[in-house]
Amino acid sequence: MAxxxxxxxxxxxxxxxxxxxxxxxxxxxxxxxxxLYKGAVIGSAKFYSIIYLAQILMRGKKxxxxxxxxxxxxxYVRSTMxxxxxxxxxxxxxxxxRNILGVKFNQSTYLYxxxxxxxxxxxxxxPSRRGLVINLFCNLVIEYYLKVLQRAGYLSxxxxxxxxxxxxxxxxxxxxxxxxxxxxxxxxxxxLFTPEKVRRKTEESxxxxxxEGKCEKYIVKGFASYFGVGxxxxxxxxxxxxxxxxxxxxxxxRGKHLKLALFFSSYIGIYxxxxxxxxxxxxxxxxxxxxxxxxxxGISFLFSPSLGLSIASLTAxxxxxxxxxxEKKVLPSxxxxxxxxxxxxxxxLFNARMMDPDACPSYVLNLMKSCSNGRSEQVxxxxxxxxxxxx
Length: 391
Hints:
Elements lengths: L5 H8 L4 H4 L11 H27 L6 H35 L6 H12 L8 H25 L7 H21 L35 H25 L6 H6 L7 H24 L7 H8 L9 H21 L9 H19 L6 H10 L3 H16 L1
Helix pairs in contact: 1-15, 3-4, 3-8, 3-14, 4-5, 5-13, 6-12, 6-13, 7-11, 7-12, 8-10, 10-11
C-alpha cells in the first residue's frame, strides 16, 4: 500500500470506531485488552529469546561465568517487559486520546503520539543496554527516511555505495573503539567485534601485536569462531520459529544460510590480518592501524549487504564520538537527550508501519508482528481496508 497522506487519513479514519483500526478482533476497547495483552506477552517472550540467544553466542567465553547468565536473564526479563508494555499500552493510549478528543482520530493521535509516549518504558532497560536500543532505533529512522528520499527520486543508494558506507563506518568505529581501550568503562556498544586495546611495548613482552601467541593462530581462530557464531544465528533464525517441526526446518537449510557466517568470519579475519601486518611492519602497535584494517574488513559486507547495517556502522561511530562530546561538556548531561530521541524514533517508526509500510524498515515490521504475536497484522489489514473504502 502507498503512503497514507494526512488528507486521506482524515477522510477515511477520522470518524471510524477504534474497534475497526485499533483492535478489530473485538469492538469493545475494554474487552479487546485480554487478547491484546496475551499476544504481547507471548510475542515479546519469543522475539527477545532469539535476540538474547544471538547475544549469548556473540559473547562466547564470557558466558562461562555464572554471573553472566544471571545478568543476561535479568536483561531478558526487562527487555521482554519493555516489549509487552509498549505493544499493549500504546493502543490503549490511542483509545483514551480518541475519547478525549471527541471520539475522533487524527494522524498524530492514532499511532505516533501513543507510541512516542510509550517510548518512556525504555527506562526499563538498564543504562548499559538502553544506549544500544536507542542507537538501533536511530539507525532505523535514518533507514526509513533514506528509503522515502530514494522513492521520491532525490537519491539512489546502490550496493556499492552501501558497501562504501560500511567500510568507512567500520574504519572510524574500530579506531574510536581502540582509543577507548584504556578506559575502565567503555561506552556500551553492541557490535560484531570488540578490538583489543593498543599494546604498549614493554621490556617484558616483545610482541608488537595486540594479542598473545602466533598471528596465524590468532587470525584463523577469529575466522573459525565467528563463522560458527554467524552460522549459529542463521540456524536459530531458521529453526526457532519452526520449533514444532524441527526436521522440516533442518531440511530447509540452504547455501544462502552461510552468507551471514561468511560475512562474520571474513570481517574479523581480514581485520586481524591487516592489524597484524601493520604491527609487524612498523614494529609497534597504534590505534591508527584500525583505520585501514576496519576499512579493508568492510569489504566483507558484500556477503550479506544490508542498508541498515551500513547505517549502523556510521551511527555507532557517532555514538562513540558523542561520548567524547559529553566528556568535554559540549552536550548537556542534565537533559535526557537520548531517551527523548528514542521516544520520537519509536513514534515515527511504528506510525510508519501503518502509514507507509513500503518504506518502513523490515526490522520494524518483524518487531511489531512478533511482539504482538500477529495482532499488528490484523490491525494493518483492517486499517488498509478502511483506507481502500475511502479511495
